[in-house]
Specification:
The chain has two domains: 2-151 and 321-349, Alpha-Beta Complex (Quinone Oxidoreductase, Chain A, domain 1), CATH 3.90.180.10; 155-295, NAD(P)-binding Rossmann-like Domain (Rossmann fold, 3-Layer(aba) Sandwich), CATH 3.40.50. It has helices at 40-48, 95-98, 127-132, 146-149, 152-165, 181-192, 207-217, 230-238, 253-262, 284-288, 301-312, 331-339, and strands at 2-6, 14-18, 29-37, 56-57, 61-69, 81-84, 87-89, 109-111, 114-115, 122-125, 137-139, 173-177, 197-202, 221-224, 243-248, 263-271, 292-295, 322-327, 345-349. The protein is globular and about 65 Å long. It is built from twelve helices and 19 strands. It is α/β, with parallel strands linked by helices. Helices cover 30% and strands 27% of the residues. The strands form four sheets. Strands 3, 5, 6, 10, 11, 18 and 19 form a seven-stranded mixed β-sheet that branches. Strands 14-13-12-15-16-17 form a six-stranded parallel β-sheet, sandwiched between helices. A three-stranded antiparallel β-sheet has the order 2-1-4, with no helix packed on it. It comes from Agathobaculum faecis. It holds the Pfam family ADH_zinc_N. This is Zinc-binding dehydrogenase. Keywords: Metal-binding, Oxidoreductase, Zinc.
């Protein structure tokens, strides 16, 4: 089969090559990938390199159909429409695993990051993980297209940040920084949950492709932080106390500083985005304002179960986010398009 393979740790050490089809052990499940999605982390690893991810077939956002199961598998059968949470291995013993937070296992290995992933015709879900983590593989509800299921990773990320971690209540105000896929999805969840103000913060350059999409997601105000006075605009929309909640999907230190200044006293900031840059400012205002900063990582079973439920009832708007579908052999074009902000969510079709 053809697959996108990462063969080294330097930037751009990826290639489209022939790979053997995965072999099915007695407890394994083989999936034929219908669609896989390019993630921002795929783009970062491709251009920056680094040891994160390991040597393997890449791609951790995908959905498809079961085509083969091992002799000892009883939960799955050929023809099942499925999506993976991309977990390939966990220890099953640590605090995270025993709490059902498998994405936080210190020994976790992800499909597409250390184990062969979904930028290929076929991908194997190891039987080991299916014994430990029953929700590592999930059925796609009837009527939900594979395209939607393939982007459940960012959907569940956004859901957890807003619905499970922020404490947002109907009638409150929310700021979402960063109009990427997770940020746009986060604004949609803020809208669904009844926020009276859903304020997206981006750059002037974001308006061309993302402003109309942001309004479709439920955004009520868009602030271009490179062209407008952020604090003045927040006070204009929310009043002098500021917003109740901020979801940082950008990650830069300057964004955290903005969030602290834009959220009211006793408010909550959920930090989804990440950056290697050190903080260059004091955190005293965080203390004086009695704000909570919540670190965020991925999702859990509740996120997946509830997001699958929302999809089954057609309660999420996803078509505006899926801007391009490319054949798998055009994976490199898709990565460059993502980097150049020419697309929002780009799918690959093997």
């Amino acid at each position: 089969m053809k697959a996108v393979y990462r063969y080294g740790y330097e930037p751009r050490q990826y290639e489209f090559r022939d790979m053997p089809d995965p072999t099915c052990g007695p407890e394994d499940v083989i999936i034929e990938v219908k669609y896989a999605a390019i993630c921002g982390s795929d783009v970062a690893t491709y251009f920056n390199g680094g040891e994160k991810g390991g040597i393997c077939i890449v791609g951790h956002e995908f959905a498809g159909t079961v085509v083969q199961v091992g002799s000892q598998v009883s939960d799955w059968k050929p023809g099942d429409r499925v999506v993976s949470d991309n977990t390939g291995h966990v220890c099953g013993k640590c605090h995270a695993c025993t709490s059902g937070l498998f994405l936080n296992c210190m020994e976790r290995v992800a499909l597409g990051y250390g184990m062969d992933g979904g930028f290929a015709k076929y991908v194997k879900i190891p039987g080991e993980i299916l014994r430990i983590h029953k929700w590592a593989l999930m059925r796609i509800p009837d009527g939900v297209p594979y395209e939607y299921a393939a982007i459940l990773d960012p959907i569940c990320n956004a859901y957890k940040a807003v619905a499970q971690e922020s404490g947002l209540r109907p009638g409150e105000s929310a700021i979402v920084f960063g109009p990427g896929p997770i940020g746009l999805l986060a604004t949609q969840f803020c809208h669904i949950m009844g926020a009276k103000d859903v304020i997206m913060v981006g750059l002037s350059a974001d308006k061309a492709l993302r402003l109309d999409v942001a309004y479709e997601m439920g955004v009520t105000e868009f602030i271009a932080s490179d062209a407008e006075d952020f604090v003045s605009r927040i006070h204009e929309v929310c009043g002098v106390e500021g917003a109740d909640v901020a979801i940082d999907c950008a990650g830069a230190p300057s964004v955290l500083l903005q969030a602290i200044s834009g959220v009211r006293k006793d408010g909550t900031i959920v930090k989804v985005g990440a950056s290697t840059a050190p903080l260059n400012f004091s955190l005293n205002d965080l203390t004086y304002r009695a704000q909570i900063v919540k670190g965020h990582h991925a999702y859990d079973v509740i996120s997946w179960r509830n997001c699958l439920g929302l999809l089954s009832k057609n309660m999420l708007r996803l078509d505006p986010l899926i801007t391009h579908i490319l054949p798998l052999e055009q994976w490199e074009r898709g990565i460059h398009m993502m980097r150049n902000r020419e697309g929002i969510k780009i799918l690959l079709q093997p």
